[in-house]
Amino acid sequence: SGEDGLAQILSEMDVHVCVMPLTEETKGFFHKTRFEAMKVGAYFINAGRGKHVIENDLLAAIVGCHLSGASLDVFETEPLPQDHPFWDNPHITIWPHVAAQTNPETASEQIAHALWAFHKGTTPENQIHRQKGY
Description:
The protein is an alpha/beta fold. It has four helices and four strands, in the order αβαβαββα. The protein has a four-stranded parallel β-sheet with strand order 1-2-3-4. α2 (32-37) links the parallel β1 and β2 (42-46). The radius of gyration is 18 Å and the shape is globular.
C-alpha cells in the first residue's frame, strides 16, 4: 500500500506487530518519525529482527508517553546487555527470543519433505529468495 497506506496504518492502529524479514530496506524501519506517526497510546511488538528498530527512538517514544509500551523478542544486540535501559522500563516486556519456537514434529516433517524433493530432483517448498534478501 506504499507510504500512504503505511501512514494510515501507523496513525490508526492500537497495536503494531513487526514480523518482517530483515533486508536492507527494513533495517531501522521503525525509527523516531514512524513511532511519532503512531497513534498516541499505541503498543509495539517486535518478533521480527532486532535491527528493524532504532532502540533509542523506541525508548524515547515510551518514556515520552507517546507509546504505551512494547513487547520485544529480538534486539539489536543479543543477548540483551544487562545494563540496557529496556530492562528497567516497566512498560517494556522482554521475551527470551521464543516468538517462533520450533515444533519438532512439524519441523521434522518439513525437513523430510525437503529432503525427499531434493532426492527426486524437484524444488523443495519454502525456498530462500536471495534476490529479495531473505
